[in-house]
Amino acid sequence: MFRVYNEDGSVYSSISLKNDTMEIEGIRYALSDFEGKRKEIAKAHQFSPFNFYPSSGYVLQFAYKGIENGKVRIFINGDKGITKLLKVEDGLFAIEPWQKYLEGSIVEFDPGKNPLLEEGKNSSGKIETDINIADSFFSVIEVKGDFRRIECTDFCDFKCIGKAEGWIKWRDGNSLLIKFVSAC
After folding, report:
1. Is 165 in the same domain as 85?
2. From CA 143, how far away is CA 146, in angstroms rounded?
3. Which domain holds residue 30?
4. Are residues 131 and 155 in the same domain?
5. 8 A C-beta contact, residue 62 and residue 72
6. CA-based torsion, 128, 105, 30, 14: positive or negative
7. Using CB atoms within 10 A as the burial measure, which of 64, 90, 151, 172 is most buried?
8. What's the pLDDT tens digit per position in 81-118?
9. 74 and 24, same structural domain?
10. d(CA 184, CA 182)
């Protein structure tokens, strides 16, 4: 059983893979229904994890703020800065620094809001390409501060036709400008 705790040590949410259930603030949901109820759950409980893929092995990801007194402070809603706690002793999670998580990850992004750039800096020129960037997948080659060098990559049934490589801004402060892809 995976648990997220309130400041006072009470259980905020619990997840049971065996029973396909997630309970948040005393209300039970089927994990398999999470995608369809994501907005409802976020509105009712401010529960909006960084990534949650119940249909592909139950990958649940939170951005974390830090570790203090045997507890990991995580953002359950990064957009609103809402945090809760995990107990290190529970041991049902792994902590991975951004740099490591980003390297080799597969991402999508909106080229209208976040264009492909020649260099990893805001003042860089934009790169024009023949491929439809919005419908493509990219792998991360290099990370430099708030920028990542990426290249179009084959992923699942998608084949990258043509060449597209450059830099994108992956975050603006605490806000992500890209979407991570973890499953087909």
Report:
1. no
2. 8
3. 2-90
4. yes
5. no
6. negative
7. 64
8. 899 999 988 877 777 777 777 777 888 888 888 888 99
9. yes
10. 7
